Amino acid sequence: MRAVRLSVVTAAAAAAALAAVTGCTEKGGSGSGDGAISVTATDDRCEVSKKEFPAGHIELDIENKGSKVTEVYVLFPDDRIVTERENIGPGTKQKVTAEVKAGDYTIACKPGMKGDGIRQAVKATGGKTAKRDPRLDAAVAAYRKYAQEQADTTLPLAKTFAEAVKSGDLEAAKKAYAPSRIGWERTEPVAESFGDIDPKVDVRADGLEAGQEFTGWHRLEKSLWEDKKITAEDKTLADQLITDLTDWQKRVGKAEITPTSMANGAKELLDEVATGKVTGEEERYSHTDLVDFKANVEGAEQSYELLEPVAKENDAALVTELDKRFAALNTLLDKYRADKNSYDFTSYDKVGEADRKQLSDAVNALAEPLSKLAAAVVK
Amino acid sequence: MTEIPEKTEGGTSRRALIAWGGAGLALGAAAAGGAVAMTRGSEDVQTVAAEAGGAIAFHGANQAGIATPVQDRLHFAAFDLATDDRAEFVQMLKDWTAAARRMTAGQAVGEGAYGGLAEAPPDDTGEALGLKPSRLTLTIGFGPGLFEKLGMADRRPDALVDLPQFSGDNLDRNRSGGDVCVQACSDDPQVAVHAVRNLARIGFGKVSVRWSQLGFGKTSSTTPEAQTPRNLLGFKDGTRNIAGTETARLKKFVWVDGTDLDDNSAWMEGGSYLVARRIRMHIEPWDRTSLQEQEDIFGRDKGEGAPVGKAKERDEPFLKAMLPDAHVRLAHPDSNHGATLLRRGYSFTDGTDGLGRLEAGLFFLAYQRDVRKGFIPVQRNLATDALNEYIQHVGSAVFAVPPGVRDKDDWWGRALFSEPSQSSEPSKSSQSSEPSKSSQSSQSSKGA
C-alpha cells in the first residue's frame, strides 16, 4: 500500500543496508574525501571519471552538459537500483551518494529520462566480500521458496474472487475476498520491493496519489461492502487484479532477499499491523482486518523461524523474548476465531476499543524486540 | 467547613499556619495555580543549575522531582502492567533506572541515537540530542493495581488507598488509574517527552501506556519566586507551597516515615504518595464572570493575589473575611486540620474540544505522606467550593512513590521487590507467592 516512489527509496535503502552487512561500509566513510566519481552526461554520452573505485561510501558528482533533462542511476547487475537521481536539468550539477559493497555495477545516464540509458560498467573493489553463514544462505533460499509458494497459492484464490466479481455474485465475492489476500499479506514486504505492483493491487482510497487510479483489492472491497453492487468497471478491475498478481507471481522469485531484508521485513509486517490493521484502516469496508493481521504475523514468524538458529547464537535472550511475544500475540488472535485452523475472524468493527488496545499492546510488545532481529542475525 | 483559622497544635501550629499558605493554597493550586515558597542556600545552587540548563542529581534518599524546584514543563504517563511476571517487571525497572540515570544527566539512552549497528534501530530515539539536561527529573510511582497483579497484595501500604468518589467527579476511566506512573519534569518540553517516550519503548511488553498528559506551565513552585505562577483562570494560587529546603515540613507532610510503616510496607520509607487529578476548567464561562465574582470565588484579588482584606499576596489570609465557599478558605490547612500538600501541578491545554471550547485546565499533582490525611480530607472539604461551578475533575490516579535510587547499583523499587524485612510471617513474603520466570528475557529490550 505504498506509493511507487517510496518503494524505490526503500529498495535503495535496502541495498545500502545490504552493503553494510558485508562490513565494507565504514562509518563516516571518506567517499568525497578521496575523490568523488565525476559523471558527465550529455545527450549521447555518459562519461565516468573512474571505472574502478573502492567499495564503501561513494559519491557521484553529476554534471548534465546535454540539452535534455537526464537522470543517473547506479545499478546492480540485475538492474536493481542502488541509487538514482532524477530530473537533472541541462547545465546543472547534482550529487548522489551510496554505500556499495565490492562487485560489478552499472552507471546509467538517461537523457530525456527514457529508455535503458547510456551505460558504463564500473567495479567497486576491496573490502570484504560477504562471507555469509551458510545457514543464512539456506534461510534466504527457504524464504524465497516460501514467498513463491505464497504467490502460487494466492493466484487460484484470487481467481475465485475475481470470478465471483465477474459473475456479479456479491455474496460469493465477499466470501472470497479476504482469503485471496492472505498470501500477499504474509509476504508483503517482498511484493512491495517491486514498487509497481503494490500500488495497483493493494492501494487504499486514502493512499492514492494525484492522478493515480483506484484499482485492486480495496477498490473492489469498497464496491462489495460500501456500494453493495458490482459494476462493469469492477469486472474489468477483477481481471486487472489477476493480471497484476500474475506479474507478482512471476517476479517474486527474483526479488532481492537477504537475511537483513528478511528480518526487517518481519518487523515491517508488524509495522503494517500497527499502523493499518490495529486501527481498522486497512479493511475499512469489509472489516476483515484480523485476517490480514494474522497473515502479517504469520509472515513475520516465518522469517523469524528461518533466522532463529543464527539469531539464537548471537542473542539467546532475544530469541527467548521473541518466542514468548509471538506466542502471546497468536494466543490473543485466537480469541477472535472459533476454529484455530480457519481464517474466519471476528469482524473488526465488532472489536471494541479496549480489545483493540490489547491487540496494539501485544503488537508493540513483539515489534520492539523484533526490530533487533536484524542486528542479531548479522552481528 | 468554615474552620477556625487560628487553631494551634503546639509548636507546629506556626508552621502549619504558614503551611496553609502552602497547603490551603495547595488546593488553591488544585483549582488553579502554584505557590511560592521561600528559601535559600541550596536554592542558589539550583537556580544556577537552572540557568545553565543543568542536571538535577538522580541519586538520593528521596526521588528527585518532588522537593526539587519545579521545572517549567511536564510529561506525565500512567502505565498498565502487561505482565504478571515479577522478575520480568523487575528487569524492566532496572532497565528504566539505567535509562533514567543517563537521561537526567543529559545523556542518550543505552548506546545512543546513532553510530551503532546500521541494521538495528538505535537505543535512543534521538530527539534530545544536543539539548541540555534541562533539569530533567524522572519520578516513578506504583499504583494500587500493581500489588494485586504481581501477587504481592500484602506489600501494598495501607496509606495507598483507592480514592473515594468525590462530589462533582466525572472521571474518564481512560484518563484515570494506572499501575505505574512516571512524572517527567524539565524546563524543555522535548526533553520531558523524550524521556517518557524512551521509557515507554523500553517498557513494551512489560507495561503499556494507559494515558499520558503534557503540562505546559507550572502552577506551583517549591522555591520562592518573584512571581507566583498564575493558573489558567488568571489567579495566583498556592502561594505558600512546601519548599524544597523546608526539611521539617517535608518530613512532616511529604516523606513517609519509618514510624508510619509495618514490616511489609517498610519499603516506603523515604517515599511519598502522589495524587494526580486532571481538572478541566470551564474556561469560557469563567471568562464571562465578573471580576467581583471571580475574586469572591477565590478569596483573593486578581491583580496582586492578596487574600481578602490584605494588601500583599503573601500576607496571612484571614479566612473568616472570605465567603464561606471561597476556594482559599476551604482549601486552607486551617480548614482541614492542618492537612498540607506539596503541589507540583501544571496547566495543560490539549487544543480544543469538539464544541470549540478550550480543552484546558490544571493537571494537579500533589505529594503527601498519607493520602488519608492529605488529599482526601482536603478534597472532601472542597465539595462546597464555589469554584466547582467552573471546574470538573475528569481524571484521577493515586500512586505510592518509592524512595530514591541511592547509587549506581540501586534501582527504582528495589526495596519493594527485595525480601521484605523479615517479618514474623515468612509466608507473607512476596517471593513465595509466585515463582519468577524468565528473568533474562527482557535484557534484549536494552538493545544490542
TrEMBL record, chain A:
The main location is periplasm
Q: Which UniProt keywords apply?
A: Lipoprotein, Signal
EfeO-type cupredoxin-like domain sequence ranges: 17-114
Q: Which Pfam families match?
A: Cupredoxin_1, Peptidase_M75
* Superkingdom assignment: Bacteria
Q: Which Gene3D superfamilies match?
A: M75 peptidase, HXXE motif
Query: What InterPro entries would the database entry show?
Result: EfeM/EfeO_iron_uptake, EfeO_Cupredoxin, Imelysin-like, Imelysin-like_EfeO/Algp7, Imelysin_sf, Iron_uptake_EfeM/EfeO
Signal peptide residue numbers: 1-19
Q: Which GO terms describe its cellular component?
A: periplasmic space
Where is the protein found, in the record's own terms? Periplasm
Q: Which residues form a coiled coil?
A: none
Instruction: Pinpoint the Imelysin-like domain residues.
Output: 139-373
CDD domains, alphabetized:
Imelysin-like_EfeO
Q: Which family does it belong to?
A: Belongs to the EfeM/EfeO family.
Q: What is this protein called?
A: Lipoprotein
Instruction: Give the organism, scientific name.
Output: Streptomyces lacrimifluminis
UniProtKB/TrEMBL annotation, chain B:
Which residue ranges are recorded for the region named Disordered? Answer: 416-448
Keywords attached to this Swiss-Prot or TrEMBL record, sorted alphabetically, are:
Heme, Iron, Lyase, Metal-binding, Oxidoreductase, Peroxidase, Signal
> GO biological process annotations for this chain's record?
iron import into cell
- Where this protein primarily resides, as one coarse class? other
Q: Where is the Dyp-type peroxidase N-terminal domain?
A: 63-216
Q: What is its EC number?
A: 1.11.1.-
Low complexity composition bias: which ranges? 418-448
Q: Name one Pfam family in it.
A: Dyp_perox_C
The Dyp-type peroxidase C-terminal domain covers: 228-405
GO terms for CC? cell envelope; cytosol
Q: Where in the cell is it found?
A: Cell envelope
Which PROSITE patterns does this entry report, sorted A to Z?
Answer: DYP_PEROXIDASE, TAT
Provide a Gene Ontology MF annotation, just one: heme binding
Say what the protein does: Involved in the recovery of exogenous heme iron. Extracts iron from heme while preserving the protoporphyrin ring intact.
Protein name (database record): Deferrochelatase
Q: How is the cofactor bound?
A: Binds 1 heme b (iron(II)-protoporphyrin IX) group non-covalently per subunit.
**Is the keyword Mitochondrion assigned to this protein?**
no
Protein family: Belongs to the DyP-type peroxidase family.
Cofactor(s) recorded in Swiss-Prot or TrEMBL: heme b
The reaction(s) this protein catalyses: heme b + 2 H(+) = protoporphyrin IX + Fe(2+)
Could you say which enzyme class this protein belongs to?
oxidoreductase
